[in-house]
Amino acid sequence: MPFPSPLRHCPNCGTAVEYRIPDDDNRERAVCPGCGAIHYQNPLNVVGTLPVWEDGRVLLCRRAIEPRHGLWTLPAGFMELNETTTEGALRETQEEAGADIEMGPLYTVLNVVRVGQVHLFYRARLLSPEFNPGPESLEARLFSEEEIPWGEIAFKTTRETLRCFFEDRRQGGGFALHDIDIP
Question: What is the pTM of this model?
Answer without folding.
Answer: 0.90
